[in-house]
Amino acid sequence: MASQEIEALANALARLPGLGPRSARRAVLWLIKRRETGLTQLVNALNAVQGRLVECDTCGNVDTTNPCGVCTDPRRDSRALCVVEDVADLWALDRARLFTGRYHVLGGRLSALEGIGPEDLAIGKLLLRVEAGGIDEVVLAMNATLEGQTTAHYIAERIETLPLRVTQLAHGLPVGGELDYLDEGTLAQALRARRPVG
């Protein structure tokens, strides 16, 4: 039986995505065994971030500076803007290091069922950024869900009169995917987005 403090740590870790009670207990035991390295590093990292997290006023990213490191990076192409639903999407795309432009986080997606309209998202800020000029391409990187595609369509309609290119991430077959394991929606999108060979 662990102390209340150790149980509280395990319960706090169990609330993290992807960790259940058993995984949290294993993580706590690992931290306890390596308290000089693992536990101390974790506590120091949490203390360094706590209280310093801010939302970037420009793009909506979460960082310890405002504007964020992505917005202030001079190596980024300021003429290309990738629109994503959430910060997690921005981090996933940026981790791949394939997009060298800047980002705009909407903070969700349109959903009539959940009562989320354009005014609940950072679409107004996006329109202001795009209308200010200097952007040649807007990449709509919404999730391949009905709500994500509705959001992409709404944004595309709002900026279609501006002198810029509006593109969207391709959807379809994953690399290494086998046809008999894919759902009908993925197969349908792959067929609609087919292109010439060569």
Give a structural overview.
With 198 residues, the chain is of the alpha/beta class. Among the domains are: 4-49, Helicase, Ruva Protein, domain 3 (Orthogonal Bundle); 79-168, Dna Topoisomerase Vi A Subunit, Chain: A, domain 2. It is built from 8 helices and 6 strands. It has helices spanning 4-14, 21-33, 35-49, 69-72, 87-96, 123-131, 146-159, 184-192; strands at 54-55, 62-63, 77-84, 101-105, 137-140, 165-168. The strands form 2 sheets. It has a 4-stranded parallel beta sheet with strand order 4-3-5-6. Strands 1-2 form a two-stranded antiparallel sheet. A hairpin with a 6-residue loop joins strand 1 (54-55) and strand 2 (62-63). The model has no long low-confidence stretch (mean pLDDT 90).
What are the SSEs and their pairings?
Elements: H1 4-14, H2 21-33, H3 35-49, E1 54-55, E2 62-63, H4 69-72, E3 77-84, H5 87-96, E4 101-105, H6 123-131, E5 137-140, H7 146-159, E6 165-168, H8 184-192
Parallel strand pairs: 3-4, 3-5, 5-6
Antiparallel strand pairs: 1-2
Helix pairs in contact: 1-2, 2-3
Brief summary:
This protein has eight helices and six strands, in the order H-H-H-E-E-H-E-H-E-H-E-H-E-H. The chain has 198 residues and is an alpha/beta fold.
